[in-house]
Specification:
heterodimer, A: alpha+beta, three-stranded antiparallel sheet, 3 helices, B: mainly beta, Immunoglobulin-like, four-stranded antiparallel sheet
């Protein structure tokens, strides 16, 4: 197809040729958009495009979140220069025995379009309730760590992170 | 992006029996973010991102990360496990397009 276009282009002025190429580009872009729309919709179960309140209500069903400042250590930078990569670490000062352990750790970024960032399900074999990850932050806002213990108690801690360049785009 | 799915796994250099060790892992993956068209409407398509990370040690699942698009490109995760016996730590990454990427490391006591 490109070879044909080149043959036709012989004898054209430069401006005409650029115009032709431009039209081809537009056609290609339109084709791309059509195929994208035809792709199946990705159904997300954990992360949805929603407000943080809606997300928490959906995941925790209105169960009370206790203040876990004495229990949870949330390690986030005060200022994130690049929102695309923000290191987060959560450590919970709680025993990890088969009777009582930390069942899951949630990381929630309040101002992200997809506020629930990750859910870590732990087992007592982990030895310590700890997780670390690199997350995206769209803009300055609170980052929360929510910890669920094996008896169902929920603890939460939050800290504000200032973001210089947002990382979520879109 | 032929590097997609390359997994790196790091253990502490010396491990003693019974230690709680921190394991760090990284996978090369684009973690596609939501795209919008000119009108600001979200393009509805199947985005390719990692939605599950499973850590197994001695055949048991130690931890499972369920992740969303709010996780960075080339995601890095850290976790702990209690090193009771020598054995293999396997980290498996699953993405939304059915891709499965695996990394392993050996726990030895020295």
């Amino acid at each position: 197809m490109m070879a044909e276009a080149h043959q036709e282009a012989v004898g054209m002025t430069r401006r005409e040729m650029l115009g032709t190429l431009g039209a081809l580009g537009v056609a290609a872009a339109a084709g791309g958009a059509v195929s994208l729309a035809a792709a199946p919709a990705g159904a997300q179960t954990l992360g949805q495009n929603e407000s943080v309140e809606a997300g928490l209500a959906r995941v925790f069903g209105g169960r009370p979140l206790k203040d876990g400042a004495s229990l949870i250590k949330l390690d986030v930078p005060l200022i994130a220069e690049n929102g695309a990569v923000v290191p987060v670490a959560v450590e919970v000062n709680a025993p990890m025995t088969p009777q009582s352990y930390v069942k899951s750790i949630y990381v929630v970024a309040d101002r992200n379009r997809i506020p629930i960032v990750t859910r870590v399900a732990l087992s007592p074999e982990a030895g310590k309730a700890y997780m670390g990850a690199n997350i995206r932050l769209g803009e300055t806002g609170d980052v929360r760590a929510i910890v669920e213990q094996s008896d169902g108690t929920l603890w939460q801690i939050k800290r504000e992170v200032k973001v210089t360049i947002g990382g979520c785009g879109g | 992006m032929s590097d997609i799915g390359k997994v790196r796994l790091r253990l502490p250099s010396s491990i003693k029996a019974g230690d709680v060790v921190q394991v760090r892992c990284l996978v090369i993956h684009p973690m596609e973010r939501i795209e919008r068209d000119k009108a600001g409407k979200i393009i509805d398509k199947k985005y390719n991102y990692i939605d599950q990370v499973v850590v197994t040690y001695l055949g048991k699942t130690v931890s499972t990360f369920d992740t969303t698009q709010s996780v960075s490109e080339n995601p890095y995760f850290a976790f702990t496990l209690k090193a009771t016996d020598p054995g293999t730590v396997t980290v498996t990454f699953h993405d939304t397009l059915g891709g499965k990427y695996e990394g392993t490391a050996q726990i030895t006591f020295g």
